Amino acid sequence: MFDFFLAMLWIAPVGIMIHELGHGLAAISLKQTQAVVRIGSGKKLLSIVIGTVHIQIHAVFFFGGTTDSIRNTPFSKREEAWISVGGPVANLMLFSGLYIFLPGGHNGAIQLLMLFNLYLACFNLIPFKVNGKISDGYRVMQAIFPGLFK
């Protein structure tokens, strides 16, 4: 039972934050004007501004996230693919870093954090579209095969 609460209140939000910041960092590398990172849903609890990145934490902070990147000139499909890959890459980097630099520390909360980040990376790279929402993998496929993925 404790593991469930640990996952919901600490591990999921950290993994989601890393994922969304990965999108934001990819957008920054493409000279975005502003990035808005939203963690969770519901009432906004906290808003942090770091340079051109606006981070908003919402009441149900363990339930997903989004990143909106804004630039004066629209992003090309290739640039959108780069931004989309940024989230899963950030999750894979955290997973790999913990795996490599904490040998033997793969139990309890660290193991859950590692596995959740691996899950986020893999799941988000699967191309799917549900109720108008598209995955990172779908966005990448739109850039590679624009005729097949609309």
From TrEMBL:
Lineage, top ranks: Bacteria, Bacillati, Bacillota, Bacilli, Bacillales
Membrane topology: Multi-pass membrane protein
Membrane-spanning segments: 45-65, 81-102, 108-126
GO biological process, one term: proteolysis
Recorded GO MF terms: peptidase activity
Domain Peptidase M50: 14-102
Protein family: Belongs to the peptidase M50B family.
UniProt entry keywords in alphabetical sequence: Hydrolase, Membrane, Protease, Transmembrane, Transmembrane helix
Coarse class of the protein's main subcellular location: membrane
Subcellular location, record wording: Membrane
Protein name: Site-2 protease family protein
